[in-house]
Specification:
The chain is of the alpha/beta class and 389 residues long. The protein contains 13 helices and 14 strands. The strands form 4 sheets. The protein has a 4-stranded mixed β-sheet, sandwiched between helices. The protein has a 4-stranded parallel β-sheet with strand order 3-2-4-5, with helices on both faces. A 3-stranded antiparallel β-sheet has the order 8-7-12, with no helix packed on it.
Length: 389
């Protein structure tokens, strides 16, 4: 057993990021300015985006996109129950109604047959989440949404660097929000990026900075002026140059990070697919997986311990794990407001009870990965329920 505790998701920034932040701190501009602009430009180039706005968080991006699309009271937004609460919360923020659907058993992405069944004349937006970094079937989703005039707003919090049929996630005309939270594949401590058509991004940029027609950097630079007009009561969602300093270098390093994540995921899958007590994550052939999470599912009918005990056993072996996610409909607010019961989404409920996320980050050594594999296989085989003869 390993001697020290392996954290589920430790932070490891490089000297380049640190030097860039210091450079910003010594400059005369620390909030939204030249580095944020460069970060947006680099992001657009790297992922072939139409346009991009750097923001305070992914949550801000999702909220801003809904607001810029004019979504409000009486509108319905369809999303997955297998996500972080921010995805559903932003729908509430604009006064619309979140309509949850269950997930596919293999990818745990939203089930498109259930999306189709949930569409009503009030449906304005569908919010897919590229769960764990595995892209949603975007062609099929577009075929559902586009003829009905429904906008797709992608929650790509897990999917920076992911591809669908060779195209980067975030390269479309529709809005797509990325997260740069401390635990995400690319981090700026807190931060996010909204991508999509230039027209919608122009709107989002204004609405994301008080609804003002000129941003502060332009106002205070030599070429700017003191004059601005408020076009709408907007929000304060801008990214700072301190955050962008981290993003500039994280973006350059992302391809290397992704390669290491994929290597680790492959090592886990190789080790666990041989064990018939464990269910490993799938990767469809036409996607590039971002591997934000490695979600293992236990074959609970063959194990004498439940998931929670399994996690305790992992902790006892000095391995940190987590669970992604507690489905939205189980949380008191959503359960009570919309009258959900746990069995309303049986696939998500079953997955939730059997899942745990293993450590997956570029800083893991091969020895760390071996420790995780050893712990999982040891716990599984010690708690194996033999089938009746
Ligand atoms: C992390 C996360 C978010 C929120 O990202 P922030 O940048 O922290 O706002 C939204 N959706 C999903 C699926 C996430 O995992």
């Amino acid at each position: 057993m390993r001697a020290d505790f392996l954290k589920f998701n430790p932070l490891k920034l490089g000297e380049e990021e640190i030097a860039e932040v210091v450079d910003t701190l010594r400059s005369e501009w620390i909030t939204t300015g030249p580095k944020t602009k460069r970060f947006e430009e680099d992001f657009v180039r790297q992922f072939d985006c139409k346009s991009a706005v750097a923001l305070a968080s992914c949550t801000a991006g999702l909220h801003l996109a809904l607001a810029a699309l004019g979504i409000g009271k009486r509108d319905e937004v369809i999303t997955t129950c297998m996500t972080f609460t921010a995805t559903a919360n932003v729908i509430e923020h604009v006064g619309a109604t979140p309509v949850l659907v269950d997930v596919e058993p293999d990818t745990l992405n939203l089930d498109l047959a259930q999306v189709e069944a949930a569409i009503t004349p009030r449906t304005k937006v569908i919010m897919p989440v590229h769960y764990a970094g595995h892209p949603v079937e975007m062609d099929a989703l577009r075929a559902l949404a586009e003829p009905r005039g429904i906008t797709i707003l992608e929650d790509a919090a897990h999917a920076v660097g992911a591809t669908y049929r060779g195209r980067p996630i975030g390269s479309g005309e529709n809005p797509c929000a990325f997260s740069f939270y401390a635990t995400k594949n690319l981090t700026t401590a807190e931060g996010g990026m909204l991508t999509g058509s230039a027209e919608l991004m122009d709107k989002a940029r204004i609405l994301g900075l008080h609804g003002m027609s000129r941003d502060a950097w332009k106002r205070y630079s030599k070429s700017g002026s003191w004059f601005y007009e408020v076009l709408a009561p907007g929000f304060k969602y801008n990214m700072t140059d301190i955050q962008a300093s981290l993003g500039l270098w994280q973006l350059k390093k992302l391809a290397g990070f992704q390669q290491r994540r994929a290597e680790i995921a492959a090592a886990y899958t190789k080790a666990f697919s041989a064990c018939d007590l464990l269910e490993t994550p799938v990767v469809r052939p036409h996607v590039g997986h971002a591997w934000h999470l490695y979600v293992l599912r236990l074959k609970s009918e063959r194990l004498s311990i439940a998931r929670n005990r399994f996690i305790d056993e992992m902790t006892a072996r000095n391995i940190g794990t987590s669970v992604h996610f507690i489905p939205i409909h189980l949380h008191p607010y959503y359960r009570e407001t919309y009258g959900y019961s746990p069995e309303d989404f049986p696939v998500a409920l079953d997955a939730y009870h059997r899942m745990l996320s293993l450590p997956l980050h570029p800083g893991l050594t091969d020895a760390d990965v071996a420790d995780v594999i050893e712990a999982v296989l040891d716990i599984a085989t010690k708690n194996y329920v033999r089938r009746a003869a």
